[in-house]
Amino acid sequence: MSFWQWMKYRPTPSSQPKKGNRPQQIIPDRYMEQHSEELLTGSLDEARHFIQTVLGDNDDLITREFVIFGQFKAVLIYFINMIDQEVTNNDILKPLMIAPPHYVAGTIELQQLKHVLLYETLYHSMSKMENKLAAIVDVILRGQPVIVVEGLDEAIIVGAAKIDKRAIDQPLTEQVIRGPREGFIEQLGTNITLLRYRLPTSDFTVRSKKVGRVTKSRVAICYLKGIANDALVQEVESRIAAIDIDGVLDVGYLEQFIEDNHLSPFPQIQNTERPDKAVANLLEGRVIILVDGSPFALIAPSVFTQFYQTTEDYSERFLMVSFIRLARLLALVFSLVTPSLYVAVISFNPELIPTKFAVAVAGGRAGVPFPSVVEVLLMEMSMEVLREATLRLPQQVGGALSIVGVLVIGQAAVAAGFVSPITVVVIALTTIGSFATPAYNAALALRLLRFPLVFFAGMFGLFGVMVGLILIVNHVLSLKSFGVPYMSPVVPGNYEGMKDTVIRGPLWWMRRRPAMFHTPNRERIDEGVVDTLKQTPHNTLDPLKVGNARWEQPDGISKASDNDSSGSNSH
Amino acid sequence: MEYPKQVTTIQAAAILISTVIGVGVLPLPLFAVRSANTGAPLVTLLAVLLSSSGLWIVTKLGMRFPHQAFTQYSEIILGKWPGRIGSAIVILFFAVLSSLAAREFGEVVITSVLKKTPLEVTVILMLLLATLAARNDMTTFTYINHLYLPIILGPAILIVALSLKNANADFLLPVWGNEPREILNGVLIIAALLQGSFIQTIVIPAMRKPQNAMKACFWGMFIVGFLYITIVIAAVGVFGPEETKQLLWPTLELAKTTTLPGNILERLDAAFLAIWVTAVFTTIFSSYYLTIHLASRLFGLRDHRMLSLFVVPFLFAMAMTPQSILQMYQVIEIVGKFGLLITIVYPLLLLLVASVRKKRGMQDGG
Amino acid sequence: MGGKVRLLILFKGIVLLLICWSLSGCWDRQEIEERAVILGIGIDQAEPDAEKKELPLAHKRGQLHIPSGKMIRLTVQVAVPGRIPLGPGMGGGESSSGGNKTVWVVSGVGHTIDDAINGLQQRIAPPLFFGHLRVIVVSENVAKNGLVNLNDFFRRNPEIRRMSWMFISKGKAMDIMKASPQLERVPTIYLMTTMDQSVKMGRFPNDILGLFWSATSAKGKEGYLPYCELDGQNNIKIRGLAYFRSDKLVGTTDGVDITLFMGIMGMNPSGGQAYVQVPGKSEYLEYSGRSRKALTKVDIQDGKPHVRVKIMIEGNIREKSDETVKLNHDVIQLMERQLEKDAVKMYQDFIQRTQEKGADIFGFGEHIRSRQWRYWDANVKTKEQWQKMYPDLKVDIQVQVQIRRVGMKAV
Asked: Do both C237 and C151 map to the same domain?
């Protein structure tokens, strides 16, 4: 028995009703569990009593009594801030109080009532009957108004919950220049809508689960049937099913439970705020996990190459993108090794840098009180502090602070002989490099790892840096995300997958889905498409082809008599 | 299944290359030149051919028993106890080999870069690196060797290419050397540097298509041989046979003589040595993995992780045994030549006995 | 299972201990500003009474049996950090003003190089660092007695680069170390740049330390080094070649001989100039080579090696002394023949001079060793033997000169 279970079932004074003058203390959750099978009897008072016992301490619980068709006593129970008042007034209360025109008021039989209410009276699309008391409470808690009618053994639930949500906004963490501007929001329903809107296919499947004993967060596992591997979906489901925690406030909670290596600094599951990215990953055969209340989606499985790729890469021209990706990879490497290389060269192998520069560097460092290791560590730490400070501050102050931090302190530190100017350059390079990585958590991992590397560099110079790098790379190579080797498709090599690593091949060149996800359906682009691309295009507006015919068909769009300065000699 | 069958042909070749290319490349031109002055490239070629034939035997043997480990089929071929003794000697030899590689690299680092660091630290660092990595399974072993391959080949090729333009053809003629007396000795010493190719014995059973093992071996050995010979040609062509004899690690000296175009780095020796850590790591890692792997088979252990921890102190002790760098090279020569008996003659014996006794392992359907 | 876990914990503990141990020692960490970066070394013969002044460090006085007359004086140029500012253009002329010198010149005596360096280290606080040693100047006097220990020390020390330049100086090497040319903040860098540029312009063969060593140790070849001299107070000029026999300096040449040497070796680019007299006139033309090629062939005639060198030079006319002769194709051809005649004589004279000293700086011996290896294996075998045989070597020179262009002037 786990601690939580024990906490739940431990004998509490309240659970054993005592006869005494002290008011009875009831823990609602516990009480509900005890009465989980209790059904509505048809007695309004009993139902009201049950709900009062469980939720009665809440001042925002409203119990509105009214009479249906002037005939049946009923109550509407809801939390005041969670329902749509307008809908409740116009679509629930109003039709209920006035009997449908073809019935004569006061003549409706009790047996008929259920039918009349559900099929002829209530205007709301999401109405259903429920007879379990515990479930009714559950529904009230989720914000939907419940109507309990005297004499009916089922309550009517109307889906008129209205929980305030923010508008669909630009995703702040993943900005793109070219691409959709929509981002996920906190509401699971909206997020699924965003996905469905892009995937109007019957293959798109959403499986729902509830995780979190208290928060009862809804988790959606989305995948494309026939593209995602069934075994992968099952594995994801079973890993999520195994989670037992009191609350899931963000998708990051789930990530930590379902990843493969829990001790690694490297993220093995990617997250995104962008529906288009999620859809792109679904199309590759991955699984998307959404949690109610979190504007982030998890992408599983993930590999290392994803962390320097963005969605935009696929909309831009492939040559530019390949170049930009190279730059990002370089930035990634910069953010990891620059400070340690600097330390190694300055304090172990100064013979590596050109003589003139070496002499000048020695001059720049003369008078700096610390060895370069300490200097670099100090600067790196203060940079981290500065970064964290600007992150948490309100935006208006943040900008000012970063200017003060970077310019003033940096300049002053150099002028005071506290650090050498080259160190400032190196730290700046590193920091900028770490910000150029699209995936924040991957950049964070590398930022963290550069500290041990600096230590190693301070101990063994270049040799130490290399030993540190080998340790890191060995670790990365041993990582797996849902069985997919973390460095794939580079290692183990996969030709098809390599077209989308550092270089981003033209879309028509990547005809198959990556092999590492073992998708049942690998065909992405039909072979015919490639053949069409290879043919010379119809240059319909080519001035030279005016009036020409190709394959017995007119090729030019205009007549020979048209005056086009660019081709003919009409001037 | 005992092994996950997933090593591809390219990966098998990559394992071979990154295992064989290691710290032995540093003194290689010296060994070659000592035995046959200007005939050094020829000696290297002969040595590559000799060890290729050894590898051919090992591969033949492996393909005969595509699903069993070396220890298992040597027991099948020779009988239980003789086979076990043979395997024990092989295991011991590779333990010595990995400890000597760690020591040799430790000496290189101490001499050229970290002059004040204790030798023990560098040796133990290399051994620990190999130990930590050897705790992984065969898949990660393959991935590690695969990923490091370009890091190993790149700098070596770069240095050879940059220095070949300073080479002098006179230093390479006549191709068989002036009065070559010790060609045989040189061939043996250099062939001993290539003994890492024995790693194929554990790679073949894990290969997806064991019938392609010969192809992997050919390409692996071809690339290794090519690199060895070009390094020797570059070193002898740039320094001349007589100057090469004066240098303990001519390849490192070659890196010292080379400048990157554009003066990014003024001299490449420290950078080359740093990158060469990967090459040495893969070599030690492979022979260490071979030792652990075969030993765990021999003792019937299911998990080789524990064993890898046990072995480190012994390896360290062995590495620290030679008293000086010159004695170390003597030991390396003796152990290497003795090793040829183990890595070439012993498999040949196994192959002969196997074909005489008509022993054969299960074959793949495909 | 429990034992396994305990063992793992033990192992982790040991690793942790090891890490702590290695963390506590940064054995080799030596900041760049805490090193005495040596940029140049000058080696002179020590004054006769030097032994009395030295501080014996590695030996007791009188223990080393090296006569004090052969002791050396080592002068080093140490970069002074802080005097050389980071970044360009922060004051140009400050290197000359006395108080602001960018380098510090220190000198000491010793029996061997390392002995002298040890002596110097006693006087310089930060550890001496040779990683940026670019220039080694050896005075003529020292070189005449041999460079054995010098080469040994520099080969053995891992910090020394094979790309450094070694010079032989006429006069004291110390003076060159003290000289401070105006163009560069750091004097030795100026000297190094001079050599690098000379090589690029074709005014001096590429002869970095490594190549000198290779030549010295090769059996059929001798080394040569640039021969320099202090010109005035602060300038250094290249006088010619200093050539060796084994490790002993045996002769020096003039600047013209550099071009001749490069001609025989067929080195490119060719930067040398030559004056040639128009036959029958008093007018001179200056000819400058652009590219050359030399073919060396060795064959055995009557049991003796016979070297034939064919040198082909292409070049332009750069200058004419006055206007009495108009250039045309016939004149040019005449000049070509004249140049060829002059060149053969000069080349042969130069080879003659090296033969007198037994210093085969051209590597003819290597040609014989590599091409006529039967003869070599039978008759020569060793470097000493070749040094004896070289003076009698028959060398034929054939020159072919082409004048291609005459510049922007028509006549």
From this structure: yes
Q: Rounded to an integer, what distance in angstroms lies between the CA atom of residue B337 and that of residue B192?
A: 6
Residue pairs spanning A and B at CB distance below 8 A? 85
When divided into structural domains, chain A yields a total of 4
Q: Which domain holds residue C224?
A: 32-83+94-252
For residue B366, what are the CA distances in angstroms to B64, B209, C42, C180?
14, 8, 74, 79
Please report whether residue A12 resides in a domain. Answer: no
- Kindly indicate the confidence band of residue C331, based on its pLDDT and cuts at 50, 70 and 90: confident
User: What confidence tens digit (pLDDT) does each residue in A155-179 have?
Assistant: 888 888 888 888 888 888 888 888 8
pLDDT tens for each residue of A124-141: 778 888 888 888 888 888
Q: How many domains does chain B have?
A: 1
Quote the domain boundaries for residue B20.
Answer: 9-356
| A417 has pLDDT over 90 | no
pTM of the model: 0.88
User: Mean pLDDT, to the nearest integer, of C80-104?
Assistant: 57
| Residue A104 touches chain C, beta carbons under 8 Å | no
Selecting from B10, B117, B271 the residue whose C-beta is nearest the C-beta of A352 gives: B271
Amino acid B366: pLDDT = 35
- Cβ distance of A359 and C35 shorter than 8 Å: no
Q: What are the backbone angles phi and psi of residue C314, rounded to the nearest 5°? A: -115, 140
CB contact under 8 A, B114 and C7: no
Residue A460 touches partner C, C-beta closer than 8 Å: yes
* B275 reaches A (C-beta below 8 A): yes
Is A481 among the domain residues? yes
Cβ C294 vs Cβ C265: under 8 Å: yes
pLDDT of residue B268: 78
The answer to whether the Cβ–Cβ distance between B240 and C217 falls below 8 Å is yes
Q: Is residue A16 part of a domain?
A: no
pLDDT in tens, B280-304: 999 999 989 988 888 888 888 777 7
Give the count of domains, chain C: 2
Determine whether C256 is exposed, middle or buried from the number of CB atoms within 10 Å of its CB (0-12, 13-18, 19+).
middle
| Secondary structure (DSSP) of B88-114 | HHHHHHHHHHHHHHHHHHHHHHHHHT-
Please indicate, yes or no, whether residues C300 and C248 belong to a single structural domain of this protein. Answer: no
Q: How many CB atoms lie within 10 A of CB A531?
A: 9
- The domain containing residue A555 runs over which residues? 536-571
Is the confidence metric ipTM above 0.90 for this complex? yes
Burial bucket for residue A393 (CB in 10 Å: 0-12, 13-18, 19+): middle
Q: Please report whether residue B30 resides in a domain.
A: yes
- Please indicate, yes or no, if residue C306 is contained in any of the structural domains: yes
Nearest CA in chain B to A475: B133
Q: Which chains touch A (3 or more CB pairs under 8 A)?
A: B, C
pLDDT at B2 over 60: no
Q: Can you give the C-alpha Rg of chain C in angstroms?
A: 27
- Same domain for A287 and A324, yes or no, is no
